[in-house]
Design goal:
The structure is a homotetramer. Chain A is an alpha/beta fold and about 170 residues long. Chain A has four helices and ten strands. Chain A has a six-stranded mixed beta sheet with strand order 4-1-5-6-7-8, sandwiched between helices. Chains in contact: A-B, A-C, B-D, C-D. At the C-D interface, helix 1, helix 4 and strand 10 of C face helix 1, helix 4 and strand 10 of D.
């Protein structure tokens, strides 16, 4: 059982409600609490790279994430990320041709807001990170997608293969 | 993407509080609701075999579960199950030598009671069911275990490989 | 036991996360669901007047709320309302000198987002609406305040009497 | 604003799931956490008298609760209590003829198990404790009942006045 590295970048996954200003924002990551609640006994190493909305990410941020994937001592990595530009970051990381299994995951609804998909996605991500061969993947909706064959359907908020629009009842 | 069959047998996973008698019991399964909350877009076929505490299962129940695994049209199966005798049922199913990937999962805390590990486990189970080779596995604590090399540690409620007692802070 | 009228105007109380656009907004009121969860057996009549952020309320909205308080067949009323301008609306209603017990309440964190104070506040509001004499009150933080002696402390998000700043650990 | 004393005795209100033995039991009270989540700014003094199922209470326990009501420095008291014998304890306390407002409250579903009525009831209890005249009351279902005119309807789990059976949709 190899150690798994988790690189936290923020995204909806980690957003919470700020009751003073009435907006959604970032405080601290909930990833550690989530692994504990999941009673996860894997050897997990969590590193917070940034806490941001993925719409505000620049190439510099993506380069920083990629460098951290490269420099990580672990070969099985999970990157938590906003869903809006998750495919772009996956594409950026893939260009580095790292010989590692890198899984990007996130949530459509913040973990702290109740009824979130995030906890389920993290459970899937940790499983796919252990079993998929080297490559860059997006894990959402109970599925994994190769980075070069996935898009976010903005109308219904699900990930799908290119050219295969789906309309689930969610 | 192959269809995944889910065979529900009850267990802590599906227990809920009965406010009239003050006890924990079974009403209906929450598995379908959980896949929906997880925004799962896989083709999932859920079948309720029984709703019971795994301590009350007999060989007849295990035979019935095994028969359903065998007769299922799907090659990737998830069996939700109480944790107390999950290893026994896995062993029973394994004896049938089915050429399928069969993943048993459950929860240490009921899904409906808050702070449950069940939703995380289901996310892991659905991922392992897609990626592991044919065989019978237990999926708990973010990990998968081969049926012949796993035990439940009754003191702390985690699954571990035989002879490898672990003491996680949970 | 007299019937209690509930006039819904929106506010943080009823906000929810929209997972397509990633913002907080209004869908439907959760007040009915909350009374059911609270196992409330009072005779409650819920009327949705508007679903809006109280910062966007105009005098016309306040007049509409006041008219509905006046025209309601009930003498014990709860008005759910955003906290930002709750005092202004209470002042507006009070100017109408209605011979009714009118309680304004709300939440600092949306009911649907977990860890909300809203359910507690609604429990308090329904109790104060039954026991306080005619007048206009704000019910928050387990307390009731007369409309002419209350302010929202914007720094920590609690209501307090005029000139009595408090700094609770919340 | 007078200080309010809270005497904790356990009951369903404070039960939680023990994931090692799979039963419901008592660990620590959640009352303090609940007042914090409710953002309550009242001066509250919480005292844990016992943590038990009210079906197991004896006269000695009821005497102990009554003595604590009597000896408390506060005139406004909340007693958290199991619902099964709440009326008996209210009757016992009433016999002491204390010149205080004493409100007994509880929950039909444990606070920690999700979808609980307990948080709503606590909000009501704290309000009624401030506004009702001296006497002993049961606060459940959004209502208050005088100790000598209340019974628990065991079929549907709601409190009602004597001789007035109700059948709410809950």
């Amino acid at each position: 059982m190899e150690k798994i590295g988790v690189l936290v970048t923020g995204g909806t996954f980690d957003k919470d409600y700020d009751l003073i200003n009435g907006n959604l924002g970032f405080n601290q990551t909930h990833v550690s609490e989530m692994f504990k609640r999941g009673r996860c006994t894997l050897d997990i190493d969590i590193q917070v790279l940034m806490m941001m909305d993925s719409l505000e990410m620049t190439e510099a941020h993506r380069q920083y994430i990629t460098n951290n994937c490269d420099n990580s001592p672990y070969n099985h990595l999970i990157v938590t990320h906003g869903t809006d530009t998750m495919v772009q970051t996956a594409t950026f990381i893939a260009a580095a041709n790292l010989d590692k299994t890198i899984v990007l995951t996130g949530a459509m609804r913040p973990y702290k807001l109740g009824s979130s998909d995030g906890f389920f996605n993290l459970g899937s991500a940790v499983a796919f990170a252990q079993t998929l061969p080297s490559g860059v993947y997006i894990v959402m909706n109970g599925r994994y997608f190769n980075w070069e064959n996935v898009q976010k359907n903005k109308a219904n908020g699900v990930f799908e293969e290119l050219g295969k629009t789906i309309s689930p009842e969610l």
